[in-house]
Each structure stands twice: as C-alpha cells, then as structure tokens.
C-alpha cells in the first residue's frame, strides 16, 4: 500500500518533441510518493533524458520500434506482464491501438489512449495511415484522453466527447520558467549578439513537415525585406533541417537567421523573441504558443491550430491560404509600442498552470485505478 502506483507511459520514439515535453512537465511536478512513471520507448529514440528520469525514480525500458509490429507486440506484452502494471497510458495517437492491444493481452486493467494530434491531407502518407487507424482508437482502450477539445473530438468522435467520456488534460507549463523577465531578455539577446531595437522573429518546433518551416521562411523573407533590422531564431531539430538550411541560403537569409538546435534553455529564448510565428499544417494543441504568450511575445498562427491556444490578446489566427504577404502584413500589425509584461495570470486562468493541473492528473489516475 505504501508503494507508488507505477504507470507505463508509452512514448513511441523519444525525439525531443512537444509530447515528451508535456509528459516530463507533469512527471517533474507529480507527487512521486504516490505515482511513478516508467517510460516505454522505441529502441531508435534519440533524446531520452535517462539521468533525469532515474533521478526522479522512474525507469526507461527500450522496446522494438512499432514498425516491427509482431516483435513489438511480443516484447511489450512481456514487459507489461513482468511489471504488473495496473495502468498503461499511451501517447502515440492513432498508433495507440498497437500498444493497447498488447496491454489488453497482458491483462492490464486500465488502458488510456491519449491523443495529441490531428491530421492534414498535405501530409498524405501520414493522413492515410491516421484515417485507416482512426476507427480502432477505442477498441482496446478503457479510457480516453486528449490535449484539446479539437484533438479529442477528432479521434474519439463528437458523441463520445459530448458524453464526457474524454478527459481533457491541458498541456500545462511551469509558469515561473516562462513568465516575462526583462533581465533574461537582455542576457539572451546579448548572448545571441542581437542589438537593442532589432525585431526578433522566432519559432520553436521540430523540423518536420507539420511545422511548415518552408512557409515560415517565406513569411520572414517578406518581413526582413520590409524591416531589414530583423532576425529569425529557429529552435529545435529534426529530419527536415537540411532542407530548411538550403532554403535559408536560397532566400539569402543566412546572415539574419540563427538555428539554435535542441536546447535546455528554450524557456529563456522566448524572452528574446518579439514575434512568434507558427504556420502549422495542424496541431493537437500547439504548446509552444502557450509558452510564447506567457513570455509576452506577439503570436501569429494558422487556423489549423486549436482556438484553445489563444490565452492572451497577443495571439492572432490566419489561414494558410492567405499567402506569405498577408502573413507578413498581419505579423507587422501585431507589433505595437505597449510595454512588454508578464501574462502568466492569464495563462493560469485558462488552465495551463502545471502546479494546478498536476493535482487533477493525480486524482484522475487514483480514480481510474479505484474503478478497475
């Protein structure tokens, strides 16, 4: 009775993306005397924080990648049986059907399917796969979870959502890390050799098709042509990084663009950014926007991003069909001479304060295990 509930968190490929950041945010804050996480990750993961997880009392268990479906099923079933888990929490969206089948075969009573994404036809292969798997989203799950109403309705359906059967877990953040701080702003801009008065346009996200970096560069090209005293900061890494670098060269933006890579201080980078642009093809939520708003940056994002990301008056939505010139015009309209301030109270009010939201997750886990 004194031992914490150990929950098997199915991560898939740990590559330093937003989903992993959300899970770690909750793990750092959760009462680990009551609840502990074990992270089940594909063997080809690249950015697992082994030391931090070990320090917090968790385990990392590597399993075959889900592409090797039969081996994946066999090994995962063995791991879940050996660990005697009562809860499996899968974060791999439509692919959760596979680990939750293994969990059912292993006799795990509580099997949570958590959706963090939607889809877009522009990512044709992914779109087809998601569409084919979508009808199976509830087959082996006992409980449903989502990061936004939009993501919940998309995967589990309107009827299921309207019945209150999908638990909405906000992608909450540590507000103390992201709220605006003038000293940090000056420090970061100094470290990045950005002078006072320079407009800093920024984006944080993996270099994947979903994030639409190529269109972002078209937008920044127009901004820079209009305001030469501007720079672009891109945080993150990913498979399309070379493609992005090539386009930066083609557009003659090398001298005014900084590729920051994967960083542990991305919360401080937000302080240096004046204008945050996220032209995503789709998002389950778009946590980077919440972080940027908390830091007081002006934000422009696509209408494919859920409306739940608008937690301050600093964010505006625009259709991707509008084109780069319209995006440039809207971006520049957002800029004003109002002094930058801390927006953390507004972010907390909308449900994104990890200190408050983690208590709800603790209660949720305890409730579902009591009902098993």
Fold blueprint:
Elements: E1 5-12, H1 18-29, E2 35-42, H2 50-55, E3 59-63, H3 69-83, E4 87-90, H4 97-105, E5 110-115, H5 124-133, E6 143-146, H6 149-156, H7 158-162, E7 166-168, H8 175-178, H9 182-191, E8 199-204, H10 213-226, E9 230-235, H11 241-250, E10 257-261, H12 266-272, E11 275-278, H13 287-294, E12 298-302, E13 315-318, H14 324-334, H15 344-349, H16 354-370
Parallel strand pairs: 1-2, 1-4, 2-3, 4-5, 5-6, 6-7, 8-9, 8-11, 9-10, 11-12, 12-13
Helix pairs in contact: 3-4, 9-12, 10-14
What does this structure look like?
The chain has two domains: 186 residues, Rossmann fold (3-Layer(aba) Sandwich), CATH 3.40.50.2000; 175 residues, Rossmann fold (3-Layer(aba) Sandwich). It has 16 helices and 13 strands. The strands form two sheets. A seven-stranded parallel sheet has the order 3-2-1-4-5-6-7, sandwiched between helices. The longest helix is centred in the last third of the chain and has 17 residues.
Cα Rg: 21 Å
Residue ranges: pLDDT <50 for 5 or more in a row? Answer: none
Q: Give the overall shape.
A: globular
Number of strands: 13
How many DSSP H or I helices? 16
How would you name the CATH homologous superfamily of the largest domain? Glycogen Phosphorylase B
**From the coordinates shown, what is the CATH architecture of the largest domain?**
3-Layer(aba) Sandwich
Domains, number: 2
CATH class designation of the largest domain? Alpha Beta
- Please indicate the percent range of residues in DSSP E strands (runs of 2 or more): 15-25%
Largest sheet: 7 strands, parallel
Physical arrangement of strands within the biggest beta sheet:
3-2-1-4-5-6-7
């Amino acid at each position: 009775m004194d031992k914490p509930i150990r929950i098997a968190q199915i991560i898939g490929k740990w590559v330093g993306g937003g989903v992993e950041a959300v899970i770690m945010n909750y793990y750092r804050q959760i009462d680990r005397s009551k609840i502990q996480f074990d992270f089940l990750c594909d063997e080809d993961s690249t950015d697992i924080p082994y030391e931090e997880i070990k320090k917090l009392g968790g385990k990392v268990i590597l399993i075959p990648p889900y592409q090797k479906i039969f081996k994946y099923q066999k090994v995962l079933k063995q791991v879940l049986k050996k660990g005697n888990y009562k809860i499996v929490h899968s974060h791999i969206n439509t692919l959760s059907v596979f680990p939750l089948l293994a969990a059912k075969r292993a006799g795990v009573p509580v099997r949570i399917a958590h959706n963090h994404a939607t889809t877009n036809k522009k990512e044709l292969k992914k779109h087809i796969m998601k569409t084919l798997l979508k009808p199976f989203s509830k087959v082996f799950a006992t409980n449903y979870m989502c990061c936004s109403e939009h993501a919940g309705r998309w995967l589990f359906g309107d009827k299921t959502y309207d019945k209150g059967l999908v638990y909405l877990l906000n992608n909450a953040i540590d507000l103390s890390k992201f709220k605006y701080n003038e000293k940090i702003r000056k420090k970061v801009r100094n470290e990045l050799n950005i002078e006072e008065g320079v407009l800093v346009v920024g984006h944080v996200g993996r270099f994947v098709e979903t994030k639409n970096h190529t269109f972002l560069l078209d937008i920044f090209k127009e901004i820079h042509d209009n305001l030469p005293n501007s720079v672009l900061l891109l945080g993150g890494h990913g498979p399309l990084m070379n493609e992005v670098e090539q386009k930066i060269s083609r557009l003659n933006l090398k001298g005014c663009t900084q590729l920051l890579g994967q960083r542990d201080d991305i919360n401080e980078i937000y302080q240096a950014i004046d204008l945050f642009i996220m032209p995503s093809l789709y998002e389950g939520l778009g946590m980077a926007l919440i972080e940027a708003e908390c830091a007081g940056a002006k934000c422009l994002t696509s209408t494919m991003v859920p409306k739940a990301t608008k937690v301050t008056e600093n964010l505006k939505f625009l259709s991707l069909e509008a084109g780069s010139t319209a995006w440039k015009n809207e971006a520049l309209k957002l800029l004003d001479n109002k002094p930058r301030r801390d927006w953390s109270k507004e972010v907390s009010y909308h449900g994104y304060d990890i200190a408050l939201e983690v208590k709800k997750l603790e209660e949720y886990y305890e409730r579902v295990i009591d009902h098993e």
